[in-house]
Write a structure and sequence with these properties.
Elements: E1 3-7, E2 10-12, E3 18-25, E4 31-39, E5 46-51, E6 57-59, E7 67-72, E8 77-82, E9 91-101, E10 104-109, E11 113-117
Parallel strand pairs: 2-11
Antiparallel strand pairs: 1-3, 3-8, 4-5, 4-9, 5-6, 7-8, 9-10, 9-11
């Protein structure tokens, strides 16, 4: 059983920065992809950033150049560095790990952390 625990959200002024963390417990097997999603009130979850097992990163157009996804293997933690934050970045941010083993695919989710950008 894998659990993901998120931290680092909060209130920040426009132009500020935050770093979100997602710490994983348990063992993750197979090939896996790490993703940060975000969901604003009344809207569907949307991809913000993704990091594949091969080390390739992908970003939503709206966050390119401002957000960076990374991981620390020693700490078993995924990060999302968010710079130049704007009000439209306000959302609940969720981390996700999708693991692929020979015949199954598994999704693990963090509990979500609120990011509010406001003056």
């Amino acid at each position: 059983q894998v659990q993901l625990v998120e931290s680092g959200g909060g209130l920040v002024q426009p132009g500020g920065s935050l770093r979100l963390s997602c710490a994983a417990s348990g063992s993750i097997f197979g090939t896996y992809t790490m993703t940060w999603y975000r969901q604003a009130p009344g809207k569907q979850r949307a991809l913000a950033a993704r990091l594949t097992s091969g080390g390739n990163s992908y970003y939503a157009d709206s966050v390119k150049g401002r957000f960076t996804i990374s991981r620390d293997n020693a700490k078993n933690t995924i990060y999302l560095q968010m710079n130049s934050l704007q009000p439209e970045d306000t959302a609940v941010y969720y981390c996700n790990i999708r693991s692929m083993v020979p015949v199954n695919t598994f999704d693990y989710w963090g509990q979500g952390t609120q990011v509010t950008v406001s003056s």
